[in-house]
Write a structure and sequence with these properties.
Helix content: 55-70%
Radius of gyration: 35 Å
Largest sheet: none
Strand content: under 5%
Structural class: mainly alpha
Number of strands: 0
Order of helices and strands: HHHH
Distance between the termini: 60 Å
């Protein structure tokens, strides 16, 4: 019996099945690489999104209560006019929201495309693009038989 490992003695079906299995494994490995690479960036994006949401929440929900409390606290501590105290309270809230916004920006800036997956997919595409199919032998026409011509299909221009 012949050795099925030797490529010269394997049948066409076995070779096609082997190539299909290897291509399937390659695609699955590339998908796994992309998932692993994207998972880290999604985590960074989620942290940045949470910081941005926190900045918006602080600016919107805390302004009325925090502004009043801060303004009256500054007025009680310093004795300044209440309008100046409210302006200082507003400035403190804007600075806090700006700080949270900078944290969100820094986290979003670190999110990058999956470079390893893109490079691997491009390399695979380049290899497959240069692959040449094995030439098929022409079928021998037996004497006394008529070779069928392929039917010509007309196309409408409509």
């Amino acid at each position: 019996m012949s050795d099925p490992v030797n490529g010269a003695e394997r049948s066409l079906g076995q070779l096609v099945a082997s190539a299909t299995a290897e291509m399937s494994a390659l695609v699955h490995d590339e998908i796994a690489l992309a998932k692993a690479e994207i998972r880290q960036d999604v985590k960074r994006g989620a942290i940045g999104g949470a910081a941005g949401g926190a900045a918006a929440a602080v600016l919107l929900f805390s302004l009325p209560m925090l502004s009043f409390a801060l303004a009256y606290g500054i007025q009680a501590w310093s004795g300044w006019h209440i309008s100046v105290c409210f302006l200082l309270s507003f400035a403190a809230n804007v600075l806090l929201a700006g700080l949270l916004g900078l944290i969100a920006y820094a986290k979003f800036k670190k999110v990058k495309p999956p470079e390893k997956s893109i490079a691997s997919a491009k390399q695979t595409a380049a290899i497959l693009q240069n692959a040449k199919p094995h030439p098929r032998p022409e079928r021998a026409v037996l004497p006394g038989t008529v070779q069928e011509k392929p039917a010509i299909v007309g196309r409408s221009s409509a």
